[in-house]
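I keep forgetting this: the sequence line spells out the residues, with the fold written below as integer tokens. I include a record here:
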Amino acid sequence: MDYGRFKFEALKREKESRREHNVVRLKEMKLRPKISEHDFQTKFGYVRHFLQEGDKVKLTIMFRGREMVHQEYGRRLLDRMANELKEIASIERSPLVEGRNMIMILSPMAKKQPKIQAPQTQAAPQAAAATSATSEPPSGNGASATRSTSSDAQDQDA
């Protein structure tokens, strides 16, 4: 075995191990206490999408000025988000105030599934066999025969 072949196979094994490795990313969604209903639903959709992909989500409520006095609004938002996502997520870290931000981390219930590609070599022959079984073999007179039959039908109508 030559050195080039050895390096190639080592690189191939490394790529394969990287493909099977499960990486959990942390996505962050920032909210404000005075968020409108539509904006909440939009951000909720993104959070649900992140969790379904297997990523953790860090929800941050940013307070400004006198909003710090009414932190219960931020806690209600985080509790609402957690309640609506309880089927697909669990609370990894309960709401906690850090400076002017209130932070909660959600983690998905199901782990991220590795992407499995279907072998294309088996699918192509099956598709070719299905098309050949349903269609008739082309003949040189097929197109002219259909024209003559349609012209015969027109002659019969007249």
Notes: The chain has five helices and four strands. Helices lie at 3-20, 37-52, 71-84, 120-134, 142-157. The two ends are 81 Å apart (CA to CA). The longest helix spans residues 3-20.
